[in-house]
Please model this.
Amino acid sequence: MRNGIYFLTLILFCSCKTPGKNTINIAAASNMQFALDSILVHFEKDFGIDCQVTYGASGMITNQIKNGAPYDIFFSANMTFPQDLYHLGFGNKPQVYAQGQLILMVNSNQKYNQIEEILFDKKIKRIGIADLKTAPYGMAAKEYIDNQGWWDKLESKIIIGENVGQINAYLKSNAIDAGFTSASYFAKLQNTQCFKIDQRYYQPINQAYIVLNSKKQQENIFVKELTSYLKNERAQQILTYFGYRI
Model:
């Protein structure tokens, strides 16, 4: 069965392949954890292919690939990192599989009416944002705040997480009072308020995958099955359920 590995801190990649089994090594942005896990449950059952998944910040995974991590496919949270790998010769031309949505989530019994009210509430002392250089959702959050002219006023409240998965964990444990994250997490978190960020204020989060170079033809075939599977109705419904635009 698939072994979803969730990183809250940077660790060295180790191969999880099981000898003699039909296996794909997948790297994926943290925002995709719930959606991709749900898709792979059906994919593994239908095709008998074991999917080993590593989740993390897209920039961090990109650096791992550049340093030789043997992934077969990488689901990034943007197009930039896969394009970089493509131009360096690490894989095929990237393909967009979904568009992500940035949201602000808040842990509070108080009911808020607008985002500005949350961010500048004196009771909101810690606001989580994913890494501003390696996590596309962190980049989008910073872009949104900058476009509003709020960064200098909010900087003392900002808590930087490694990726949106870590921001989600902070929200769940009440380590932060509010956090910018992916809409894909809203379906999983309880007792929170969610506000969609106006997409006019940040670059579209076009999430793309890149099929990476593999010396084994068999794995190339398995990956092709997976990329085709993403286009079927069930996979598309799962992505839509978790807040992605198709």
